[in-house]
Specification:
The chain is α+β, with helices and mostly antiparallel strands. The chain has helices at residues 18-29, 54-63, 66-73, 113-126, 173-177, 267-277, 321-349, 355-385, 389-402, 406-417; strands at residues 8-14, 34-37, 51-52, 76-78, 80-85, 90-95, 108-110, 131-132, 137-143, 148-153, 158-166, 182-183, 198-207, 220-224, 230-234, 250-257, 291-302, 306-307. It binds flavin-adenine dinucleotide.
Length: 425
């Protein structure tokens, strides 16, 4: 039974995606009252993230030790991330196992985003908190001399909250309300359509059996070459009637495309790309995998963008957006907790509390993490683009040489894992 939306709360989290849910878990763990709302009927189920890194698993584990274990049990542990060229020669193979000394999650977990969100929602609701769906925030204003916010919903309700968490995604309404700009970190201009945007197609497909052996079922593989990336990420399918998830040729494909693809590409469109530049397309050793069924498909454009401040997103390369969102959300819950305590102590002792400093520290830290991640993702996107010519050849040769060095491999695996970004306490 869903309780109606209350008229006031301490914290209102707008958006029940991974960032909002992570913040909700963090607040619940600290027993801070909150309300979480989302404009959707119920959570996302479109094909988006598939890679979860150690940093997000570790961060969730600080709140609920069983949660990461449960996610791991319904995902595939990709112990290596392999990049091959059109002739299927290994360009480089990143060994995530090299970070085993620092984490028990020394792999990238291949798990669809909707499954991660589903489990996080169960934990939020298990703690006795409703998620209020179908609640689109349409207006926000400061009230009570700036000590509260008043949020108005499309459905007519009004809610006041002391803190508002803008976890409402890359097209955030709240960000605009707060006057926070979304800027291209390289041009420093407002992020918007540009010539460096990448178009790609994401599709969940079932491949026909037998699956050719050049399409690994236990790890992520990225094929680069002229025309764009072909990335295959195996996933476990839903097990029938309570059975554990099955490894049944279910794959998420990320296909770079030079032009604007159809809104929801069909099997023929996807197969044509695989035939032209997928595994088996340029080798006589293996056939091209055949698509038996398309379960879901959509198109995306990506561009780097960073908010100019975190108080008051991302290309899929590197699998970082959802991970960062989860870590942002958990760290924000911690900052809100510190902020409340500081205000309480100041009131008790009759001193002034430095409201701005705590939130600024959060903003500075998370923004610097985001900037570093964008740099890494941009470098990886250059590799993904492939292409012909000396530039592309040199990039690949340098990477091939660098990844021969165990130290370089370990450093890069550490970067991808996001473990170095955790807040120092
Ligand atoms: C194709 C693709 C592949 C990706 N692959 C990866 C990957 O492998 N690994 C990875 O880590 N990341 C990946 N990402 C990025 C990841 O999907 C996003 O970074 C992540 O979803 C961001 O989470 P979020 O909670 O911040 O926002 P969202 O997931 O966008 O959630 C925002 C929520 O806010 C709600 N909302 C919006 N406006 C309002 C409003 N006015 N009122 C109420 N609710 C509102 C929305 O309905 C939505 O539910 C990928 C993204 C794409 C597009």
């Amino acid at each position: 039974m869903i309780n109606p939306l209350p008229s006031s709360t301490e914290v209102c989290i707008v958006g029940a995606g991974p960032s909002g849910l992570a913040c909700a878990l963090g607040l619940a763990a600290r027993q801070i009252p909150f309300v979480i709302v989302d404009a959707l009927e119920v959570g996302h189920n479109s094909s988006r993230a598939v890679l979860m890194q150690a940093s997000a698993l570790e961060a969730l584990g600080t709140l609920h030790p069983l949660l990461p274990e449960e996610l791991v049990s319904v995902g595939i542990q990709s112990k290596t991330l392999t990049t091959i060229d059109l002739q299927e020669r290994i360009v480089f193979r990143l060994r995530m196992t090299d970070i085993a000394a620092y984490t028990k999650y020394a792999f990238s977990l291949l798990i669809p985003q909707h499954r991660v969100e589903h489990r996080m929602r169960e934990y939020v609701q298990g703690g006795g908190n409703n998620i209020h769906w179908n609640k689109r925030v349409t207006d926000v204003k400061e009230v009570d001399e700036g000590s509260q916010y008043e949020l108005r919903f499309e459905s007519g309700e009004v809610l006041t909250a002391r803190y508002v968490v803008a976890a409402d995604g890359s097209k955030s309404f709240l960000r605009s309300f707060a006057g926070i700009r979304f800027i291209d970190p390289y041009t420093k201009k407002e992020a918007g359509p540009g010539k460096n945007d990448l178009s790609f197609v994401v599709a969940d497909v079932l491949f026909a059996s037998p699956l050719p052996s050049n399409v690994p079922r236990d790890g992520l593989q990225m094929m680069i070459g002229a025309g764009g990336v072909v990335l295959t990420a195996p996933m476990l399918g839903e097990g029938s009637a309570g059975a554990p998830p099955q490894n049944n040729n279910l794959f998420r494909l990320y296909l770079g495309v030079p032009d604007t693809p159809p809104r929801s590409p069909d099997a023929a469109y996807l197969q044509a790309i695989l035939d032209a530049r997928g595994p088996g397309s340029h080798s006589k050793l293996h056939p091209v995998p055949q698509i038996a069924k398309v379960l879901d498909s959509s198109r995306y454009r990506t561009r780097p963008a960073l908010v100019d401040r975190y108080r008051t997103s991302m290309a899929p390369a590197g699998g970082q957006g959802m991970n960062m969102g989860i870590c942002d959300g958990i760290e924000l819950a911690q900052a809100i907790d510190e902020h409340r305590r500081s205000a309480f102590n100041a009131e008790k002792s009759g001193t002034t509390h430095d409201a701005v400093q705590i939130m600024d520290a959060y903003s500075t830290h998370r923004r610097s993490v985001a900037a570093q991640v964008i740099d890494m993702v941009e470098s990886m996107t250059q590799v993904e683009k492939g292409g012909r010519g000396w530039g592309a050849y040199l990039r690949v040769t340098v990477l091939w040489a660098v990844f021969k060095l165990p130290f370089a491999n370990c450093v890069f695996a550490w970067k991808i894992s996001g473990l170095g970004h955790a807040k120092k306490t």
